[in-house]
Amino acid sequence: MILERHLFGPGPSNPYPEATAALGLPILGHLDPAFLAMMDETCEWLRTVWGTANARTLPLSATGSAGMEAAFVNTVHEGDVVVVAVNGLFGQRMCDVAARCGAEVVPVEHEWGTPVDVDRVTGAHPSPAIIAAVHAETSTGVRSDIAGLGAGKGDALLLTDAVTSIAGIELHADEWGIDVGYAGTQKCLGVAPGLAPFTINDRAFERRVEKPRSWYLDLGLLGGYVGEAGTKAGGGRTYHHTAPVAMVASLHAGLGRILEEGLESVWARHAAAGQQLQDGLEQRGLELFAEKGSRLPELTTVKVPDGVDSAAVRARLLERFGLEIGAGAGAYAATVWRIGLMGHNARPDAVELVLAALDEVLA
Amino acid sequence: MILERHLFGPGPSNPYPEATAALGLPILGHLDPAFLAMMDETCEWLRTVWGTANARTLPLSATGSAGMEAAFVNTVHEGDVVVVAVNGLFGQRMCDVAARCGAEVVPVEHEWGTPVDVDRVTGAHPSPAIIAAVHAETSTGVRSDIAGLGAGKGDALLLTDAVTSIAGIELHADEWGIDVGYAGTQKCLGVAPGLAPFTINDRAFERRVEKPRSWYLDLGLLGGYVGEAGTKAGGGRTYHHTAPVAMVASLHAGLGRILEEGLESVWARHAAAGQQLQDGLEQRGLELFAEKGSRLPELTTVKVPDGVDSAAVRARLLERFGLEIGAGAGAYAATVWRIGLMGHNARPDAVELVLAALDEVLA
């Protein structure tokens, strides 16, 4: 029996139908001219969703967490001061990853559920090499002001996690001063998990580690893998590793769908769905977790009502409706739910379904 | 227009139909009990194709090259002596990756096209921490004697690249003394590229680097990701990263197909197809590149006849027949072709097609 799920957790989300259809097509060789042309177009379309003109914009061949690792391993020189804004699980993870790369990490802790305090972060150290922050914290459903960090970064590089923001809410990497960014495919991009859309500008690339500890994620080598900017499809490629061709084809299809709809329309669709859900939850007397004014539309965090067994509700939703919502993260595992309306699921019918399902299960 | 290719290069190969069909199914959440059960079964079936009882056997969430990196980054302590058998491109790459992990690399060079010399490799250093070798060199089409290295490894760990051998030729990780092994999905496993089947035994795990430089590939953390051995599906998982659920489902389906056919039958099918191809090429007066007695059935290397433009032939095969064969690697890029008959393509009809196509294009 083929299982079908409504994936309304923090990701993966149900892919756009175009992305799923692409996965089922015959695969191409990783050096096939037709595949290389598809890779070129994928990189070009990624530039659009990142809001960047960076030549070095590509899908890394691993999940979003490897994007985080690529960001640090290519930019942290031994002993570099890295200021990390920590307002959730993924900020914490940045500290771990940066430290393994040899950074002197300066974490700036925030209460979970609140956005990053730009002044505290930019003032945390007089001359950091890197300032790192999460745009949309998947663990808490909070949006932070990346443009503010970019304005106050000084000489530091600004490194940004856009895993849950890309193609869901406004993201303007160049305008905001993002030097290095990584994302994932399985949230608002509406593609299965497995790739990490990545971008790095010239400023950061010039300061990179020449021979990073990771061969697989070495951006100096990966330039040849995607033929870098301006290289014609089919020429100028250097073999690095075998591209995950099926996943790249799926990402290409998902991006095509998004750009056909229009990126601003997609943002508006996410905004509307998130507002509809959050209004509906509050009308039912449920309390939202993320601070008002910083709530992500694509990922809503809501407090589990007193006396309600969080896991039992989630199990019942899955069993009765094939509907997945997420537990909370970290200390909030049992007291918060995370409800994602990402990519293909950012639709009014999805909102009505999840609200009706909650009504029944909580009754 | 949907492009269809005969992928007779060094990989990716055309996936088994079951593996392609699985990619097109609705995806599951990465913590869904049904997905966790599928992951458990995938790890169990990977044990079978590896020939191992290792609890720590799992598909890493990146391509085969990341498997190589995981093998070294988890086992090389700063300054460790690592003896690497180099008889092709992937042996060379091992030297680069191991050095980035802090190894003192002792390369043992061989002429390309020849197998690893067990005595030279095991005698290259009195007390290496690690001996590393490629079982089936994708760059040359040569099979090496891993069992011999295992018998002579002494106290060293034996680290083996099985990217092009797994599920194509005999592989007995435990019997041969392989301590750490990695592979890829896109060759004889008959699945699209994107995952790295990995195995590590207790002996190697106990000697591992406690906090390796790579967070993404840290086997200490990845134990929780797959629930380790004996953990029931749905319980005992620790969130590490979001599993690439579509690719795992596809690997599960590919492995299911292989085990349904029977692993020994699959090996026999590869052996027969390779022999048929190599006989056919020699009957046509073409000269094989890999040394007789060490030729892989799943990947045949053949010298480009004098006066023939290698790239023009490959382009013509692609254009007229949608048929891909590979160029040579490294110094042999223009003088050797690589013809793969892997997984689903290890069939007599595939052999006849590639021979007939070559006949026409070389006429």
Automatic annotation (TrEMBL), chains A, B:
Its cofactor is pyridoxal 5'-phosphate. Transmembrane segments: none annotated. The keyword Transferase applies. Belongs to the class-V pyridoxal-phosphate-dependent aminotransferase family. Substrate binds at R338. Pfam families: Aminotran_5 (PF00266). Gene3D superfamilies: Aspartate Aminotransferase, domain 1, Type I PLP-dependent aspartate aminotransferase-like (Major domain). Residues 36-330 form the Aminotransferase class V domain. The modification N6-(pyridoxal phosphate)lysine is found at K187. One of its GO terms (biological process) is glycine biosynthetic process, by transamination of glyoxylate. GO terms for molecular function: alanine-glyoxylate transaminase activity; L-serine-pyruvate transaminase activity. It comes from Nocardioides mangrovicus. This is Alanine--glyoxylate aminotransferase family protein. Signal peptide: none annotated. InterPro entries: Aminotrans_V_dom, PyrdxlP-dep_Trfase, PyrdxlP-dep_Trfase_major, PyrdxlP-dep_Trfase_small, SP_NH2Trfase/AEP_transaminase. Keywords: Aminotransferase, Pyridoxal phosphate, Transferase.
